[in-house]
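Bumping with the actual sequence this time:
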Amino acid sequence: MFKIVDIIQFLISFFLIFPMVNFIHLCGHIFFATIFGGIEKKIVIGCGNKLFSIWRIELRKYYFWNGSCEFSSLKYDNRWTNTFIYLGGAIFNLLSMFFVNTLIYQGILNFSVFWKQFIYFSFYVLFFSIFPMSFSDGSPSDGKAVVLSVKKQHKDKITGDIQIKSKK
């Protein structure tokens, strides 16, 4: 039976923790894009109408749902650098899970529902990003983009949450 505290915890998870986990995921993609010389980088949090931008981070109306990162080109653009960029989000989610777990184990953070849900959502995002599948709009997951990149079949360089824009 649900209590009011359970509903409040769900709302906190959905509107605070899940967007935070998505932001960490997108930072992973941008981190590796930066290492490989990506320019005009931007993180978009959520979908819908743009609310505001700070630095190169754009917040949209439905901030709790989805997100993307964008960059124009790479200085080092090959299937292996693209593989690291596609896996960057999952790597950051995995590292954040280990980091939080280590802080809890060391007694620096108290184990709480907040951190349990943070690890849960991190695993959720990690799993569904590396699972090789196509989304309903036809774009590949990060995992499928890696497979296509390694096979040299991924020409348009667009995934569910990464967009590489070509300069014209």
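The tokens above came from a reply further down the thread. Residues 45 and 59 are 5 Å apart (CA to CA).
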